[in-house]
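ESCALATION

Customer reports they have been waiting on this structure for their group meeting. Please prioritize. Original submission:
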Amino acid sequence: MCEAQQPTRPSLAQDRTLTGMARKGASPVDVPGSGGGKRGSKAAAAKGGEGKQSRLKQMRTVFKLTQERDPKLVLWTAVSLLVPTAIGVAVGLFVGPIWLWIPAGVLFGILIALNVFGRRAQRSAYTEMEGQPGAGISVVQRMRGDWRVTTPVAVNRNQDLVSRVVSRAGVIVIAEGRGRGARDLLAAEMRRVRKVAGDVPVIDIIVGNGEGEVPLGKLQNTLMRKRRVLRRGEMDDLYRRLAAMGQMNLPIPKGPIPTRVPRGGKIR
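Update from on-call: job pushed to the front of the queue and completed.
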């Protein structure tokens, strides 16, 4: 017997789910059981495809730029891929089973090739950045982890600059530049920071290739090896206290700023 169909009432759990979505402003695509679910899955798949394409495009761009600066990139990447693959084939033929060792050798070769490519690309990028103002602190800003950067906190007319980093290791003051100007800025900032930091370790680093300086390519490893002594709450309090010291004073020339410049570009 056919019973008359009556409108089904959502259960208590479904009612709570829909009510919560309504409060959060959920769109019809997010509501379970609605026709928007398919559209949402298609949109998510489209976004995932675009993300993969952008990553592949980025890898191709990095490969082209690195190959221009490092002619041996293809050679060493190919060697790192072929050697483990050949070892896997040889072990599979003479020891066996071949179906296990050949895929293992190929996978191991791909991992080593990607590692070699990444290291050579990073080295090439550091070589290109070396000597430019702000190159050192840009390396810190790209590092993983909780590195709270304030840059620049001091700068002079020669583009020597000092940056401040609050980390689990304490306060790290990084100076970039050549000559005595960077060291003078570093010493002045160290005095300011020590007045506020208290018992927190204050570490000074000069980026460069001279005696007592840290090369740009070794800056990341140097910072990662520092001993962690602060907790997240202590970092928050320390960062607020340092930020309360005020902003830096830029070396702006004294005198009125000209508002009318002739066409020739020379100010009378």
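Sent to customer with the following note: The beta strands are 148-155, 161-167, 170-176, 202-207.
Escalation resolved.
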